[in-house]
Amino acid sequence: MRAGTPTVRWYIMATRNRKAPRSTLVLLVRHGETPTTGKVLPGRAPGLHLSEHGRGQAERVAERLAGVAVDAIHTSPLERTRETAEPTEARTGREAVVDPGLLECDFGEWTGEEISRLSRLKAWSTVQRAPSTFRFPGGESFTEMQARVVGAVDRARTAHEGGVVVCFSHADPIKAVLAHALGTHLDLFQRIVVSPCSVSAISYAPGQAPVVLTVNSTDEPLTGLRVS
Length: 228
What we know:
single chain; 228 residues; alpha/beta; 6-stranded mixed β-sheet; 7 helices; 36% helix; 14% strand; Phosphoglycerate mutase; His_PPase_superfam; PGM_Phosphatase; phosphatase activity; Phosphomutase_MSMEG4193_put
């Protein structure tokens, strides 16, 4: 078939005009500071709310999203994550979907314990250096947590393919998602820093590996992260 025939010309034009599937941008936001941040493992215990500083951090996240066309907001059910999501809901007009898949790890018997005490336990070294082998007494393993949260993010991005999804969650779950996107073994996920109200961004394009665009971002505007 010659290049000048109508059929070939149509094929060339159709190929040129065909647009690649648009990537989906997932923004992972850790909740703001609480009165116990850095001191206690609160886990899934109810009744923990943002501090005054944490509420200010949540407002700042919403401000940083100015100019970002947010398609959906998903949040862990706990009070501190839902409160962090509220300013973003107000600014975007999007009501947050409460997703148990974004919950904090179940720390079991360690829930509510002071980190200073736990850090003296022999098991704490395993938590830091070989988390894939560890299960919290009476609670969840890190591998179970990672599978749960990655699954929640996958469902959210699939439901809003080509859009922008903001997920409010917790430090360890977000680090586990980032490690998965980076292709990093779970045993190394503790090397990732996720500060209160920081934003980490992952771009998901059909048929391609995820692209981590930013990690632990706490200052700059979030426009410009979108990739085609």
